[in-house]
Amino acid sequence: MDDLAHMRTALALARRGLGETAPNPTVGCVIVRGGRVVGRGRTAQGGRPHAETEALAAAGDAARGATAYVTLEPCAHHGQTPPCADALVEAGIARAIVATGDPDPRVNGAGLARLRAAGIETELGLGASEAEAILAGFFQRIRTGRPLVTLKLAATLDGRIATHAGESRWITGEPARRAVHALRAQHDAVLVGVGTVLADDPALTCRLPGAARRAPVRVVADSHLRTPLVSELVATAREAPVWLLHRDGADPARRAALEAAGVACVRVHAGGVGIDPAAALAALGQAGLTSVLVEGGAQLAASLLRADLVDRLVWFHAPAVMGADGWPAVQPLGTGSLAALRRFHPLSQGRIGDDMCAAFGRAPAR
Asked: What does the pLDDT average to over 61-88?
């Protein structure tokens, strides 16, 4: 097998950790000696142990003189674990192939420099684009202080998410709903507005077979703490984390009751009549979250789009038309000209059951 094949194995390992390793990045590592894989590992749930530590433990003495394929520059700082760069040096690795550098100021080239200073042949860039896509959330938090935001919408062909009477279950079919659960499993948190909680009483859990341990943080933008104490979220707050983002002036007694039920209430800066979306995301980033899946509703979607805070868009379309009397997927944005449109570029599209799903990324600046 060649270098690219081994790096692809490391990338596949890293991808498996999406949604499990925050605040640390998900990393894959493969150790090869004499053409044979002697160790492999990925960042463990919760962010520790790191991928290199796991792979070196599996390789044992066979790591001496071997090549390490790592999807992110090995760390060079002492945190809750020793530096991975030092571990690779002490294990006697002869060659290190690294997909991409780490922009964390505590690393940012220092890990590669430590390897080279120890005489390890080091190469950077193989599989970089794939690694950067996997690490997009971690990079976003390091560079901007907020997590990567993916907005998920499920609507009719004419962009409606509910009838004029509020009926919304279910516009898309069962295969599309399973795909949404898979998306939840790949994100650190799921975010909805309190209107969605009041209308649908969602659980926001990942209910795929074998994915029980993947429990994204369930976050509600709830400026006045209106989430009912009898809601599904509050009832299960001790089983999977629930955070309510609220503004100043929320009822202290209600906050105390919610916290007594196991809910975390997080005060953030207000913006107009609701919560400032940038402040909300900054609070989530400060808490260590690297990726957030936004599932509703239309007002929350609009506030994030207005603030230019949506990095990716995943849109499920049911083959049906509802008409203008239905509820739109996004509330008014105040767009006065075509030049002011929020634009995205296509990433992928395909059929899921009877529905269609298209994914988009933030359009490059013009």
From this structure: 90
Q: Label residue 327 exposed, middle or buried (CB < 10 Å: 0-12, 13-18, 19+).
A: buried
pLDDT tens digits for range 123-176: 999 999 999 999 999 999 999 999 999 999 999 999 998 888 887 788 899 999
Contacts (Cβ under 8 Å, ≥6 apart) of 259: 265
pLDDT for 211: 65
d(CA 118, CA 97): 15
How far apart CA 171 and CA 149 sit, in angstroms, is 23
From the candidates 52, 54, 130, 295, which is the catalytic residue?
Answer: 52
Instruction: Please give the structure tokens belonging to residue 271.
Output: 């913006």
Answer yes or no: 54 catalytic: no
Q: What is the 3-state secondary structure (H, E, C) of 75-106?
A: CCCCCCCCCHHHHHHHCCCCEEEECCCCCCCC
pLDDT, one tens digit per residue, over 90-105 is 999 999 999 999 999 9
Considering Cα of 128, then 131, then 137, then 143, what sign does the dihedral take?
A: negative
Q: What pLDDT does 268 receive?
A: 93
pTM for the structure as a whole: 0.92
Please tell me the predicted confidence (pLDDT) of residue 210: 67
